[in-house]
Amino acid sequence: MTQSERLIRREVLRADIVKLEGELAALREEEARLLQDCEHHYADGRNASTGGRVRICAICGRVLKQRDDKLWG
Ligand SMILES: [Zn+2]
Question: What pLDDT digit, counting tens, does each position of 51-62 carry?
């Protein structure tokens, strides 16, 4: 492999790295979003979130993200 071939190969690898890092960031974001919510419900079908300003699932204890979070900054 010549030096110029190495430099070309390096550019190809760098492009792949950037692309894969982007995909990885998207996957991590999706993973984080999945953990923000749960679908627990009481036996009567109501959502099991409880609490005041901060809603917490009564079943798994997860802190639930409010839909209107953005309105309150
Ligand atoms: Zn839950």
Answer: 778 888 888 888
24 alpha carbon – ligand 1 mean position (Å): 27
Tokens of 33: 């979003």
pTM recorded for the entire structure: 0.45
- Could you tell me the distance, in angstroms and rounded to a whole number, from the CA of residue 43 to the centre of ligand 1? 13
Parallel, antiparallel, or unpaired for β 63-64 and 55-57? antiparallel
Return the C-alpha torsion angle 47, 51, 55, 56, nearest 10: -80
State how far the Cα of 47 lies from the Cα of 38, in Å rounded to an integer.
10
Reduced to 3 states, what is the DSSP secondary structure of residue 69? helix
